[in-house]
Write a structure and sequence with these properties.
With about 525 residues, the chain is of the alpha/beta class. It has 19 helices and 26 strands. The strands form 5 sheets. The protein has a 6-stranded mixed β-sheet, with helices on one face. Strands 9-10-11-12-14-13 form a 6-stranded mixed β-sheet. A 5-stranded mixed β-sheet has the order 8-15-16-18-17. Helix 10 runs parallel beside helix 11 (about 335-345). The chain is globular and about 80 Å long. The two termini are about 35 Å apart.
């Protein structure tokens, strides 16, 4: 009889497998689970080359997965000055005055819209603090940026432009460029002339990031972009990636049949612990940026347009990919955006092996909830995002939507109760990648969602395990601890189902295993 590479014993195993919900011991061989049960079940799997890890009573669960991340691309989004703790324009100016230059530029990220206290981001608020230096400050949602006049000049931006997607270069009532670049196409104009982090540093940061993710208990992430395949493949060839990454490259407005065919061809690409699986769309932007597609305008009269100027073209692209057997994930925050995606999926021919999903879903009415389960659409939600809002609705997100829509914030529990698959994630670097925070905030929502019921402990765990697997179409290989499935495992000092949410958030990670490789050993 062959022997196991790894045996994990002395644990309270919560398998999420209905056939065997509980166990104490798991055996792993060649990256696959080969035995689950009590000590006598795995005794014969032990050999001289078997590593045995006694967890001393810790809780072992299926490997935790971040259902929405930007690992790799997020390295660019977190370059420079962290502005996430800035609370007002005075604090922003002070941070910029002392900021370190990167090849002559000031680059920052994580800037909260609430800093501007209801006003629009405007370079006039920072110009005298930066003294002619080119500046690029990414807003926390990564859907817009504030840049200085010197940055506009460096990029050759002298006025508004027309884009294939719903993006814009903001101007004030007098036609002056405010420096607010809204959505990806507008930001790219300046990003293309910004200094880039050298390859050796990017490689080191990627390894550091993935190691930190594993230390938090993550074994996988659904990455909602294409990242940097060359960098990733080079690292994967040199070492074992501690986190399993599944990438979904973007399909943007204007994509023709050749572009769609290229996206289909990309689905075959991958390596050890990474692969391309699916395509990412945007149906709208963000509430705070005024680009969420809403059924009724926000308080500034914005939010009435889709990211795809022709929403029917989006639907045609989804149908093309569906026929090719490619799953899609669509960013849809506003109620109109969510409705259009659901309407699109309703036109698809049934395919039991293909799961389409909607990302974010920040505010939806009652009638949209049951359609997710009925249409087989997975909901992918990010509970930590609720921290950017306030229970009294004094934040920019709530004020833009108004009280009625703000009270529908992040209806995670309502979607679960309506029978939907609900995968949970962080959207790193929009929020921290620690899955323990995702589990905790899913149970105790914050801000505008604080009055809404949270998930149960079991539902939260499922959101990072079995429901994440279902959203990715991977239930046959992951999401449970069962013989024949991937050996992706996470051990926590507390039971994430029964322990209070605040204890889960701070629980030590005893062990992380990805593909049978121990990627983190805790105290």
């Amino acid at each position: 009889m062959p022997t196991a590479d790894l045996v994990i014993t002395g644990s309270a195993v919560r398998t999420l497998d209905p056939a065997r919900p509980q166990a104490t011991t798991v055996a792993v061989q060649d990256g696959t689970i080969v035995a689950v049960g009590e000590e006598d079940v795995v005794r014969d799997w032990r050999g001289s080359g078997t590593e045995v890890v006694d967890l001393g009573g810790a809780s072992l669960v299926p490997g935790l997965v971040d259902g929405h991340s930007h690992a790799v691309w997020g390295l660019d989004m977190t370059t420079g000055l962290d502005l996430s703790q800035v609370r007002d324009t005075a604090g922003l100016r002070a941070a910029l005055v002392s900021a370190e230059r990167i090849d002559g530029w000031i680059i920052g990220y994580g800037l909260d819209y609430n800093v501007f206290q209801g006003g629009a981001p405007d370079r006039a608020l920072i110009e005298d603090a930066v003294a002619g230096v080119p500046v690029f400050l990414r807003m926390y949602d990564a859907h817009s940026a504030l840049v200085s006049g010197a940055a506009l000049k460096a990029a050759g931006v002298t006025g508004p432009r027309t884009f294939a997607q719903r993006a814009r270069i903001a101007t004030d009532s007098a036609g002056r460029l405010t420096g607010h670049l809204v959505e990806h196409a507008a930001m790219t104009l300046v990003e293309s002339v910004m200094p880039r982090v050298p390859y050796p540093e990017r490689r080191a940061r990627l390894v550091e990031l993935l190691s930190a993710m594993a230390a938090g208990g993550l074994t996988g992430a659904h990455v909602m972009d294409i990242g940097d395949p060359e960098l990733l493949d080079a690292v994967a060839r040199e070492t074992v990636l501690p986190v399993r990454l599944r990438f979904s490259p973007w399909c943007m407005p204007g994509a023709d049949k050749d572009s769609l065919a290229e996206l289909v061809a990309l689905q075959a690409r991958g390596g050890r612990h990474w692969r391309i699986g699916g395509v990412k769309f945007f149906m709208d932007g963000t509430v705070e940026g005024g680009t969420a597609w809403l059924e009724h305008p926000d308080c500034h009269g914005q939010g009435t347009e889709a990211f795809w100027p022709d929403p029917d073209a989006y639907s045609d692209a989804v149908r093309f990919l569906h026929r090719a057997g490619v799953p899609t994930a669509t960013h849809a925050i506003g109620d109109a955006a969510v409705r259009h995606v659901l309407d699109t999926v309703a036109t698809l021919e049934p395919d039991a092996g293909l799961t389409h999903r909607i990302e974010h879903i920040e505010s939806v009415p009652d009638d949209s909830l049951p359609r997710f389960a009925r249409l087989g659409v997975a909901a992918s939600m990010q509970p930590p995002h609720t921290a950017y809002t306030r229970a009294d609705h004094a934040d920019e997100w709530s004020k833009r939507l108004g009280d009625t829509r703000a009270t529908r914030a992040w209806r995670t529990r309502d979607l679960r109760d309506a029978g939907a698959v609900v995968a949970l994630g962080s959207d790193w670097p929009i929020a921290h990648h620690d899955p323990r925070s995702v589990l905790a905030t899913a149970r105790t929502p914050r801000g505008a969602a604080a009055a809404r019921p949270g998930l149960t402990g079991l539902q939260a765990l499922e959101g990072c395990t079995s429901h994440a697997a279902r959203a990715a179409g991977e239930s046959d290989v992951s999401g449970r601890i069962a013989v024949g499935l991937r050996a992706d495992l996470t051990a926590l000092a507390v039971d994430p189902v029964t322990a209070p949410a605040d204890e889960v958030a701070d629980a030590p990670v005893r062990l992380t295993v990805t593909g049978g490789h121990i990627t983190h050993r805790g105290p």
